[in-house]
Amino acid sequence: MHFSRAIVRPPAANFADGITSSDLGAPDLALALQQHEAYCQALEFLGLTLERLPPDPKFPDSTFVEDTAIVTSKGAILTRPGAPSRAGEVASMEPVLGRWFSELGRITSPGTVDGGDVCEAGDHFFIGVSHRTNEEVAAQLAEWLRKRGFGSSLIDIRNMPGMLHHKTGVSWLGGRRLLAWRGVAGHEAFRGWEVVEVPQSEEYAANCIRVNDTVLIAKGFPQIARRLRELGYDLLAIDMSEYRKMDGGLSCLSVRW
User: Fold this and answer.
1) What is the DSSP annotation of the chain?
2) pTM, whole model, 2 decimals?
């Protein structure tokens, strides 16, 4: 999928009040804002037009816009976040996406899903069942995708320590190639796919984004950067230190299409 647009939102002043399981300390807001701007500039450098939303202090996690919607080449669907404190974030995303998509799908109760649990890989989507995304949503989302010509697979990550979302540990690199944590790389859903395993000490780098002909990776992970370059990818490294403290990664910071 060739990306031409993205929606982003910088962190609000109360960013540190968001949900996290990290023990890396509180984020530095000024640095987080600098890193967010560098991220936005990278997307623009790669040819994307950005819709920059204002900070939303009502929702400390709202900079992680990816969780509010799933956008494909054939339509978009609004999610229903699994954390109750994030439910209101979707309402502000609806009118923004509505400018480009005349019909928006919706996940309905009792289904819950965070966009971070849905990994697009061309015409196939891997849906992670997590503590944020339940099995009920799988049927809803799989049917919505099927009607648009996409296939889907379900992967239960609830017993995989450290994997908040499916895309915490799995990213699509293009074609039939994935980047994944060792603990999930051998999952039967990936049969027929080439899986590049992330070194055990560099798990955070598993969350990357292929934006057209470039792969955005988190800065500071030399082993996986070297491996991806050996495979022929052009890389752009972004410092994500403050977002890592809040369980966030590169994909979390934008809704792309």
Assistant:
1) ----EEEE-PPPTTGGGS-----S----HHHHHHHHHHHHHHHHHTTPEEEEPPP-TT-TTTT-GGGGEEEETTEEEE-B-SSGGGTTHHHHHHHHHTTT-SSEEE--TT--B-GGGEEEETTEEEEEE-SSS-HHHHHHHHHHHHTTT-EEEEEE-TTSTT-SSHHHHEEEEETTEEEE-HHHHT-GGGTTSEEEEPPGGGGGGG--EEETTEEEEETT-HHHHHHHHHTT-EEEEE--HHHHTTT--TGGG-EE-
2) 0.96
